[in-house]
Specification:
Length: 382
C-alpha cells in the first residue's frame, strides 16, 4: 500500500427532512447567504421552498443567484462572485446537483479576496480564504458533496478542467434522498454511470490497495443491483437513498486510500465531448468507459479480469467489458457517439481536439494511434 493521509471534514446530514436543521446550522456561520441554484428545477419541484423556510426562520438573509448550467461555465461563477461581494454575504449555500455545487465551491473561495474564477482553476491565483459553504444536494452522481473538487469549463479557451483545495470542502452537506426523487430517468441513469466511473477511475490507478479495491467492487455492485429497481420506480425512497450514498462514497476518498492516484483518462476524454457538444457528463462516461477498457486490455488484463469475476462472474476480459457495456445500455445510457447525435462527420474534429489538448490518464498514456482506436470503438467500429 502507498502512504496516504485520510482527511475529510465534511459533516454529512443524510436522510428524510435533514434540511429542517439547515437554519440552525447556517446561523453558526453567518447572517447573509448567497443561495446558488440552477435552471429552476428546485422552484418547480418545491425543494426551494423547503430549503428557504428553515433559513428564514433562523433569520438568515438570502441573496439568490440562479442560472448555473449543466457543464458549468466560469463566466457564471464570476458573475456570482460580483453579486456576493456587492451584497457582502458571509455564507454560500449551494442548492442543486454537481454543476451548482462545483460552481459554489469556486464562488466561495473567490469572494473573500475578489479572485478570478479561471485564474483559481488554473492555479494562477491561490485562494487563502473561503466563505463557509453549505451544500444541499438534489442529484446523486458526482460525489462533490463530500470532496474538495470543482470541475468548470471555459468555452472561450476550449477547456473543461478540475481543481481542488481543502478550502472548498463543504462545511456541511445535506443529503435528503427525497430531494433526488424528481430527477428524470435519463439523469438518474447518468448519475449511476458517473458513480461507477468514479469507482473505476480509482480502481485502475496505481498502488496495491486491496481494501480500496473491495470498496470499489461493493459500490459498483450496489449500483448494478439497485439501478434496474430505481429506474422502474423513480420515487422509491430506499432505492434513491442507496444510490445517493453509493455516489457519495464513490468519490470521498474511500475508493482511493492506499493508491498513488487514480487514472482519470475517461473523465478527461469525456470532458472534451461535454465541451464540444454539451453532452451530459454521465453520457460521456458510458460511451468512453468501455472503449477505454478495451484500450487498456494490453496493459492490465488481470485487473479487468479481477473486476469481471467480482461483478459479473467472468474472468474473460472482453466478456467483462461487454457486460459493463450491456449494463450501461440497460439503463438507457448511450454507449456509442451516434446515440447522442455525434455523427461520423465529427470524428476528425474530436481527434484533432484530443491531439491538441492531449487528455490522458495519470497512469496510462494515450498516443495518436490510441486516440484513433478509442474513437473507432466509440463509433462502434470494431
Ligand atoms: O439546473 P437545474 O434546474 O437544477 O436542473 C438540473 C440539470 O438540468 C437537473 N436536476 C438537478 N437536480 C434535480 C434536477 N432535476 C429534477 N429534480 C432534481 N432534484 O439535472 C440536470 C443536471 O444537473 P447537473 O448538476 O449538471 O448534474 P450532475 O450532478 O451530474 O453534475 C455534473 C457536473 O459535475 C461535474 C461534471 O463534470 C459536470 O460538470 N463533476 C464534478 C465532480 C466533482 N466535483 O467531484 C466529479 C465528477 O466526475 C464530475 O466531473
Ligand atoms: Zn464524473
Amino acid at each position: 500500500m502507498e502512504n496516504f493521509t485520510a482527511y475529510n471534514p465534511v459533516r454529512v446530514h443524510f436522510g428524510k427532512d435533514v434540511c429542517n436543521e439547515l437554519g440552525t446550522v447556517a446561523k453558526n456561520y453567518g447572517r447573509k447567504a448567497l443561495l446558488i441554484y440552477g435552471g429552476g428545477s428546485v422552484k418547480r419541484n418545491g425543494i426551494f421552498d423547503q430549503v428557504v423556510a428553515p433559513l428564514k426562520e433562523a433569520g438568515i438573509e438570502i441573496v439568490e443567484f440562479s442560472g448555473i448550467r449543466p457543464n458549468p461555465r466560469v463566466g457564471d461563477v464570476d458573475r456570482a462572485v460580483a453579486v456576493g461581494i456587492k451584497e457582502n454575504v458571509d455564507i454560500v449555500i449551494a442548492l442543486g446537483g454537481g454543476s451548482v455545487i462545483d460552481s459554489a465551491k469556486i464562488i466561495s473561495v473567490c469572494i473573500p479576496e475578489n479572485l478570478d474564477g479561471w485564474k483559481v482553476m488554473t492555479r494562477k491565483q491561490r485562494p487563502e480564504k473561503g466563505l463557509p459553504l453549505l451544500a444541499v444536494l438534489t442529484l446523486a452522481a458526482t460525489g462533490t458533496e463530500m470532496n474538495m473538487f470543482s470541475v468548470l469549463q471555459n468555452p472561450e479557451l476550449g477547456l473543461k478542467i478540475g481543481f481542488g483545495t481543502e478550502l472548498m470542502y463543504p462545511k456541511h452537506s445535506f443529503l435528503d434522498p427525497t430531494f433526488t426523487a424528481t430527477v428524470n430517468k435519463e439523469y438518474t441513469a447518468y448519475g449511476i454511470v458517473d458513480l461507477i466511473a468514479h469507482s473505476l477511475e480509482n480502481f485502475f490507478g496505481t498502488g496495491h490497495a486491496p481494501l480500496s479495491d473491495r470498496f470499489v467492487v461493493s459500490i459498483v455492485k450496489e449500483a448494478i443491483e439497485v439501478a434496474p429497481k430505481l429506474l422502474n420506480e423513480l420515487d422509491n425512497y430506499d432505492h434513491r437513498a442507496r444510490i445517493l450514498w453509493a455516489s457519495t462514497c464513490a468519490l470521498n476518498g474511500t475508493t482511493n486510500y492506499g493508491r498513488k492516484s487514480g487514472d482519470w483518462a475517461v473523465h478527461g476524454l469525456g470532458h472534451t465531448l461535454s465541451l464540444m457538444f454539451d453532452t451530459a457528463h454521465g453520457a460521456t462516461l458510458s460511451i468512453v468507459y468501455p472503449a477505454w477498457l478495451r484500450y487498456i486490455v494490453q496493459y492490465v488484463p488481470e485487473r479487468i479480469s479481477h473486476l469481471g469475476s467480482e461483478l459479473f462472474g467472468t474472468i474473460d476480459v472482453h466478456q467483462s467489458i461487454q457486460k459493463l457495456e450491456e449494463f450501461f445500455s440497460s439503463t438507457n445510457s448511450p454507449i456509442r457517439l451516434q446515440q447522442v447525435g455525434i455523427g461520423m462527420d465529427k470524428k476528425e474534429e474530436i481527434l484533432n481536439h484530443w491531439l491538441d489538448k492531449k487528455p490522458s490518464g495519470m497512469v496510462y498514456d494515450i498516443d495518436e494511434k490510441g486516440y484513433q482506436q478509442l474513437l473507432d470503438w466509440m463509433y462502434g467500429e470494431f
